[in-house]
Every structure is written in C-alpha cells, then in structure tokens.
Amino acid sequence: MPSDEDNQPQASTSGSGYGEIRASIDVDALEKYLERNLKGVRLPLGVKQFKFGQSNPTYFLTDANNTRYVLRKKPSGALLSKTAHQVEREYTVLHALHQYNLRPTTSSNSRVPVPEPYLLCTDTSVIGTSFYVMQFLDGRIFEDARLLGLPSPKDREECWIGAIRALAALSSIDPADIGLGEYGPPGAYFPRQLRAFSKIAEVQGATRDIDTNEQVHQIPFYESMLRWFQTHLPDESRTGRRIVHGDYKLDNLVFHPTRNVVIGILDWELSTLGSPLADFANLTQPWSIKPEYLPTDGVFRQNVRAFKGLPTNIGTSEANCAPVQLDLLETEYCRCMNLEYPLKDIVFVKSWMLFRTSIISQGIAARVARRQASSANAAQYSTSVDLFGDLARKVVVDSGEDVEGVNQGAKL
C-alpha cells in the first residue's frame, strides 16, 4: 500500500531525490483523471519530479491525505524509436509480477520485490502521453556501489547478496507461468539484441543538434565490436528463456529502511524475455572495469565505479576498495539459479552490456540534441558514449581476445 509517512523519500547516499518539474505535465487534467480512476486518492496533488530518469520522466505525487505515489510517463514530442519509452510494457510486467507475488503458492523467498502498479492510462488526451501510477516504496536507494554509508563490511556484503537473491527470484520464474510467455520476441536473446540495438544506433547516430547542426557522438569501435559479438554468441540453452529486467543495477533497487534486503526493483523500460546473464553482468559491471580505465577527474570518475583488481573493503571507510568479492556474488547467483560455477560466456555478456550502455548513452545524446531529454543530468550522461564503448572493448581485450582480427565478412 502507499506509505503515509513524511513526504521526503528516505535514501542512503543521495538516493531518489526530487525537485521542481522539468518535463511539463498538466496537473489539473491529471487530478481530474485520478479522481475518477484511482481509488482512495484525495485532491489536491503535490507534484514533483524525481532527479533520476534519463528516459521516461518520473514524478513524485502526494495527495491531500499525505499518501504518496509514483507516476511514469513517456517523453513528450516525436520519439526517435518506436520500441523505446514503452511505459505500457513496464506496467504489464509489474502487474504480472505483483499478481505472482499474491499467489498463496508463492513462497516468501520466491517473491519478486516490485512496487504495486495501480493503473495504466493510454489516453494521450489526459497529459499528452501514456502513463502509469504505482506504489511509492519508502526505503533506501544506493547511488554509490561502494555502499560507504553503511556501518560495516557485513552490511555491504548483505546488501549485495540481497541484490543477487532478488535477481535470482526474478530469473527463476517461467514467463509463461505468469502470462508473459509472449512478452518478448521469439529466438535467442543476444542475436536479437545485436540486431535491435545496431538499428537504433544507426538512427541515433544520424541525429543532429537542432541549433548547431552538429552530429551526436559516434560509438567507438562500432563495426569491429559488432563483428566480434556476432562471432562469439553465447549458448543460451544453459539458462533458458527468462524475464530480463534490462537495466538491473544497484541504483534501480529499493532496500528496506533498516534491513539489508531488496523491497523493490524499479525502471522496467528495457525488460523483455531472454538470458538472465544480462542482468547479472549489468549488476556486477564495476568488477569488469579497472580504475585506471576511467578519466582522472570529472563526472565519470565520481559516478562510475571500477572494482576490477581492487582488494575487498574490510574497513568502514576505505573508498578505494571493492565492497565484496565478485566470486562470492557469482557463487551465490549460481547456487540460487542452479548453474555451474564459474559462469560460461560471461566475457561476451559483460562486454555487450557495456557496449549497449554506450548505445543507450547515444540515445540520451540524441534526445539532448532534439531537446527531448528529461534528466537533470542528461547532458553529462550523453558524453558517456565514448567511455562505455571503450570499456566494452577493454573487457574483450583483457580476456585475451583479438577484436580487430575478426573476419570482416561476419554478418550482423
């Protein structure tokens, strides 16, 4: 149920802060719609916008009863991709998982922590785009993967293990069993990803700034990396076809206010069906990056974590250490998923998830160029195109593979 406590979302490190509305919304029209369709809501509404959300604008609503909600909508204006910003799909997967959690046969350990979705509106005449409203979860969101704000190494380890167990709960569900058997296209996941994101990158790469006419950042090593991916595709039969969150990482998780367990998985925009290894690789991405691969200063030095080669943090304030051993996380994941340790094909998956981040960053850059970006930090994030493209290549090279030596005739 919605929380009725104070208006400020609780968070560790800086969490899910909010501020004034950046992406305009017709509050009067929204109030009229919710009064008719959302049970228990009491007007007027207080509306703020969360600082996170580079893609779909996300709003913090408080009604006259001090009941809190979250609203997510599509960006306004013409969209570059027909497959992006599908808030309808977010609502669909949240609704299916919430219903699964309510089953008497679903054990507490098997439940997937998600906020309860309340309603979906596809009538664009209300606020200009489709949107949905869901439960606000009062908990902690950690923006720094080091978890330095926690009191002990044990707490840091427990939170990371909690993230692994929440992921394993999601990845253990048979999609067909909860009505999501057709939630994603048929066929293997990674070949689909390669085809879809390469098409998206081609469209985005042609975008020019509406004022300066400058072309957006191009993805480094684009052709050679796509060829390497095509010739090193994983065997997906080992894990089966599962629900993939698509952006599973620590700052998309809400932890209990006092216990080190996940109570909510957020931001399902990229969810589909496919290989659960994609989510594992995305979550453990800091262990794929060496500190020396990052710029010496600036936003990426501050916000992108690099744990590869670092010792485990055994003190309470050691910033230049990893919060937990990667082996521990991978072992726990394999135990929960009944997979052989170590994970097969993980180099491909780690590199692809970084490369895909470069493409997604290019999309933010393209929206900045078209003045459609909704994040307060969108311009900074758009410059990550080069960084993540280069990091994807380094993962492959560090494993001993030759990216440039791949046959030029490999098909995408």
Automatic annotation (TrEMBL):
SUPFAM superfamilies tied to this protein: Protein kinase-like (PK-like)
InterPro entries, sorted: ACAD10-like, ACAD10_11_N, Aminoglycoside_PTrfase, Kinase-like_dom_sf
This protein's name: Kinase-like protein
Pfam families reported for this sequence: APH
Domain (Aminoglycoside phosphotransferase) ranges: 47-289
